[in-house]
User: What shape does this take?
Amino acid sequence: MRRILISILVLWGVASLVFLMIHLIPGDPVETMLSTSGASAELVESMRSQLGLDQPLHVQYIQFMGNALQGDLGRSIFSGTRVALLIRSQLPATLKLAGAGILISVILGMTLGLVAALNHNTWIDTVCVTLSVIGVSVPIFWLGLLLILVFAVNLQWLPATGEGTLKHILLPSLVLGFASSGSIARLLRGAMLDVMRQDYITTARSKGLREQAVILRHALRNALIPVVTMIGLQAGFLLGGTVVTEMVFSRRGMGQLMINAIIWKDFPVVQGAVLVVAVTYMLVNLLVDLSLGLIDPRIRYE
Amino acid sequence: MTKPVPSGRSTVREAASGRSLTMLALSQLSRNKGAMLGLLMFIVVLLSAVFAKQLARYDPVSIRPQDYLQPPTWKHLFGTDSFGRDVFSRTLYGGRISLRVGFLSVGVAALIGSLLGLIAGYLGGLIDGAIMRFIDMLMAFPGVLLALGIVALLGRGMDNVIIAVGISAIPGYARLVRGCTLSAREELYVLAARSVGCRHRRILFRHVLPNILGPIIVLSTVDVAWAILNAASLSFLGLGAQPPTPEWGAMLSVGRGLLREAPWQTVFPGLMIMMTVLSMNLLGDGLRDALDPRVYG
Assistant: This one.
């Protein structure tokens, strides 16, 4: 309960920061917004009143919060479409990509970390550790372009762009998954090495358990706690990473929406998109924290 | 990667023989193969950026239509782009931009973040609460999103990217330094300093700060890697360096359109980003191991 209360407080803070965004723009926000398209003084005036920017700050704040709570995030200043609708049409594509990315990163990261730890100080360990540090260091847009070059341009096995089928999501989710698997692998390797030195592992072995049971039931379950927290943090990296990945593979989604809105200075859209992605991130982490209690009964949130 | 851990006794002997903890950490670092590889790679990147003018055979921005899209040859090591510009020369100059962005943004972030962390951890109470709740809010924006939002406010351009990446790195330092300060505050030397009448400022900067410098250095090293990666991403998205600036991310963004015809335009600048980031990550890992107080007990 306390954990949920804190989340609500942070949520309120995030929404306030997003509200303040438009007021932190150096210069007049409306003139800045319309500067890319060139607008008459009348249009600037009408836009100002449409956005409610002619009202006192506290009135604007209450209005923004009230609207946001009802799912109303304003309208795009160019197309006039409701921001909530725009986001609703783009968010599923992004969530699907991020979800596929997490799946791959967990599978890949846990395999690398586990194999490395079980072969500590051998060449297998070195290979896994090298792969994971490359994963942390590789620019995802570059990896994406390289995979397109190899698998779409040269081998012509997979499509470079487009969406819909499993084939289309394979390359982008592989890019995202590999890039974020590095952190998971490194963490799991360290945690496993720590856990394997504990007394209860010796006990488990000495009572004659098979090595497989020792590793899976006794060691891995304990090493998993920091890893699950890390998966929550990686969700943030993945949500940011999808923005870049979507641009590389020309996929629909929040990335396209946000980048175009930033370039065209369509602030209501930027505000709405930033708010929704931050809320998504928070929900994921709330779920992760609550699921920790399932893995480790010692962790309880009152 | 094997890491020789000195036994407690030899550490004491080495310490007793007059070698400082810094020297011990450095000798530990020099035995770490990964860190040394990172250092070597970093020196290569650094030198190629510093001496870009001497090493580059062509001007990075002037257009040479007669050299349109040449594949890599001895004349053009990394080939040329669609304006006939030498990709090798542009890549060298790109290092200047990326290193500047990395060190500048992280330097400012480390300064501001550490200061906030020191104040929050040392003073505690209401000020601590206020600072840390603000930091929590910044941390609620995932990954590159905070930097993206700030660039949205300030407008496109490399200077704004530096500010954006810098601000989004602040929370890490504030949290780290606050944690370290909280435990350092309870140490005897702080009590001793206070009992001889030191002012808060002197205690903070002369006694607490030097003792928590290790973790700050480690975080800064890996953060430079992270900042370079983020700044390149923002440039790739068209929000940072604008053409014809020879910035790695921006070069990739242009090269992307000619991936089939001229892959060298994409391969080499990206390879440089990875090498730079990898070098800082390896170095950071090595420093973390070397400075880990557990090794020395």
Notes: Chain A has a mean pLDDT of 83. Chain A has twelve helices and no strands.
